[in-house]
Design brief:
By secondary structure, this protein is α/β, with parallel strands linked by helices. It has 2 domains: 1-204, 3-Layer(aba) Sandwich (Rossmann fold), CATH 3.40.50.300; 208-307, Helicase, Ruva Protein, domain 3. 44% of the residues lie in helices and 14% in strands. The chain is built from 13 helices and 9 strands. It has helices at residues 2-15, 20-31, 46-56, 73-76, 110-113, 117-122, 157-160, 174-182, 196-207, 213-228, 238-254, 262-278, 289-297, and strands spanning 36-39, 61-65, 77-82, 87-92, 99-103, 124-127, 130-133, 139-144, 165-167. Strands 2-5-8-1-9 form a 5-stranded parallel β-sheet. It has a two-stranded antiparallel ribbon with strand order 3-4. Strands 6-7 form a two-stranded antiparallel sheet. Strand 6 (124-127) and strand 7 (130-133) form a beta hairpin. Helix 2 crosses helix 11, helix 9 packs across helix 11 and helix 10 (213-228) packs across helix 11 (238-254).
Length: 307
């Protein structure tokens, strides 16, 4: 199973040059059954990451370009009346896929953004009083332009909280961009590395990764520091604690361990927490400074003192 993980990462990194950390975090997010928000400038490879990941894993992929005039029905689907049968028939929207790329999600109105809330949390949607289950696995990758760009709406905090991770791709290094320029043909994924049942088996294996009391204590001390440490941040919620643990388990899994160590928590901490600490108040991309401050303040080897 772990050979498959290595094959997945190798294939992702053959297309997205110089982005090993970001591709690893994207895979961790999927294995942990979360959703991913990618915030960066246009042309940085956000869409390429989403399409490459879905093809590598053999998942059904659909892309929606969010615009200011988009309606919730454009994502969820709509019921259309059939005059011959004298009844309504539901026509599924693009959300009925295994990987949904919500491209430039912050260009849509808050009402349209909120159409994803139930789907991301409950893995189902409700239309006209009826509930429709979504595919398994169901993974939303949303891309977002920096908020200082024209025509953007900040994601509400309830929507931000639905994303397990937020990452930034950033500019490629010199060697990676040189390799990209030398390659006359854009690298593509020829075939899937694993099947859907194999992916679901990996997700179940992540659930079985163990975390001892000392590790849980370290994780909670990081969360507590956001609440009581005197930093001017949004405090991390109990839901974030659970998400952080699940992401840490997935990081342990791809490193071929069935137990979590502090380094796993540290590897996912910025991606899981920075957008929650900032909320909707940031005007541009963050370097992860707030999350890194928490990591610097808390020593994994120092046991907690009850508050």
């Amino acid at each position: 199973m772990h050979n498959k993980v290595e094959q997945i990462l190798n294939q992702l990194n053959s297309v997205l040059l110089g982005k090993k950390t970001q591709t690893q975090l994207a895979l961790v997010c999927l294995l942990a059954d979360g959703h991913l928000l990618i915030e960066d400038l246009p042309g940085m490879g956000k869409t390429t990451l989403a399409s490459t990941l879905s093809r590598t894993l053999g998942l059904e992929y659909k892309r929606v370009q969010f615009t200011s005039d988009m309606l919730p029905a454009d994502i969820l689907g709509v019921s259309i009346f059939d005059p011959q049968a004298q009844q309504f028939h539901f026509h599924q929207g693009p959300i009925f896929s295994q990987v949904l790329l919500a491209d430039e999600i912050n260009r849509a109105s808050p009402k349209t953004q909120s159409a994803l809330l139930e789907a991301m949390e409950e893995k189902q949607i409700s239309v006209d009083g009826k509930t429709y289950p979504l595919a398994k696995p169901f993974f939303v990758i949303a891309t977002q332009n920096p908020l200082d760009q024209a025509g953007t709406f900040p994601l509400p905090e309830s929507q931000l909280d639905r994303f397990m991770m937020r990452i930034e791709l950033g500019f490629p290094n010199h060697a990676a961009e040189m390799a990209m320029l030398k390659n006359s043909k854009h690298a593509t994924v020829e075939k899937a590395v694993i099947s859907v049942p194999e992916l679901q088996e990996m997700q179940r294996a992540v659930d079985k990764v163990e975390a001892n009391d000392a590790l849980l204590d370290y994780l909670l001390r990081l969360v507590d520091e956001s609440r009581y440490g005197g930093l001017a941040v949004n405090p991390l919620s109990p839901r974030c604690s659970k998400i952080l643990l699940q992401a840490s388990k997935a990081m342990a899994f791809i490193h071929q361990r069935n137990y979590v160590i502090p380094e796993d928590v540290q590897a996912v901490f910025v991606a899981v927490t920075e957008h929650r600490l900032l909320g909707v108040n940031h005007e541009s991309q963050s370097s992860g400074a707030l999350s890194k401050t928490l990591l610097e303040r808390i020593d994994p080897l120092t046991p907690s003192v009850a508050r």
